[in-house]
Specification:
- By secondary structure, this protein is α/β, with parallel strands linked by helices.
- It contains ten helices and six strands.
- The radius of gyration is 18 Å and the shape is globular.
- It has one domain: NAD(P)-binding Rossmann-like Domain (Rossmann fold).
Length: 271
């Protein structure tokens, strides 16, 4: 059901690859809610996914951009404002990649060159994205910037290795830039700490299926889906969340506040 919460608003949505991507669902919901936006992803990702199908369905265009490149990001904002007819009101950062996880490196055996890539792609790009917007004055007053995070920024999950550090960096940048952008332009900056979600990237992490099932049993509401997360993003983009900023917002069915569940206790008894 559409409430036209984003009617008249313009934005940029990064990270959509295919139907499993949270960003894909965000784009669909933003379109339903009346927003105009551009889509973006890294050039290599554009060759792998179905983003052009999404662009056609949302009546928009795809602007390739390497999120670690300041030049690419400035071009992204310049072209987006031209295509959309003005400054943007919301930006979604849905970007994360770890070469160390892809190569199965344990936390004590990280390749440091890859580690730096993980931090640059998954964390520093959030800062670069906002710095480029500030330089070009590309976001309207009372705009909203949202980054997608994970609870591994606060708690240790062995399989998440250097991505946990990247997510902690992401959340710190949200606070630092949230203060700066709030004072300068009333722009709010938040991160969403989402349930484990079977996206293309998430499902590639070793042991993901087992942890997904564990989180499902630990969460009183169950795991939040990609579609649920999209609804939360729409709320944060809308004027309904106008005074929320510099927050890491858990969207995980209650997992982050649950010590242990009855289902997990029963599972341990069976073991």
């Amino acid at each position: 059901m559409s409430h036209q919460l984003l009617k008249g608003k313009r934005g940029i949505i990064s990270g959509a690859l295919d139907e499993n991507s949270i960003a894909w669902h965000v784009a669909q919901r933003a379109f339903e809610e009346g927003a105009k936006f551009t889509l973006t992803n890294a050039p290599i990702a554009l060759r792998m996914g179905k983003i052009n199908e999404l662009a056609a369905a949302c009546e928009t265009e795809v602007i390739p951009a390497d999120a670690t490149s300041t030049e690419d990001l400035e071009n992204l904002y310049t072209k987006s404002t031209e295509l959309l007819g003005g400054k943007v009101d919301f930006v979604l950062h849905s970007i994360g990649m770890s070469p160390n996880i892809r190569k199965g490196k344990a936390y004590g055996e990280l390749n440091y060159d890859w580690y730096q890539k993980s931090l640059d792609i998954s964390g520093l790009s959030f800062h670069k994205m906002m710095a480029a917007a500030e330089k070009l004055d590309a976001i309207n007053e009372w705009g909203s910037v949202v980054g997608l995070s994970y609870i591994a920024a606060q708690r240790t999950f062995p399989f998440y290795t250097d991505m946990a550090d990247a997510k902690a960096l992401l959340e710190s940048i949200a606070r630092g830039y949230g203060y700066r952008f709030g004072k300068a332009k009333k722009v709010r900056v938040n991160t969403i700490s989402q349930s484990p979600t079977p996206t293309t990237a998430g499902a590639g992490i070793g042991g993901f299926d087992s942890f997904f099932d564990f989180a499902q049993k630990m969460s009183p509401l169950g795991n939040a889906s990609a579609a649920d997360c999209a609804n939360y993003c729409i709320f944060l983009f809308s004027d309904l969340s106008r005074m929320i900023t510099m927050q890491n917002l858990f969207h995980d069915g209650g997992y982050s506040s649950t010590g242990i569940s009855e289902e997990v206790i029963e599972l341990m008894k069976k073991g």
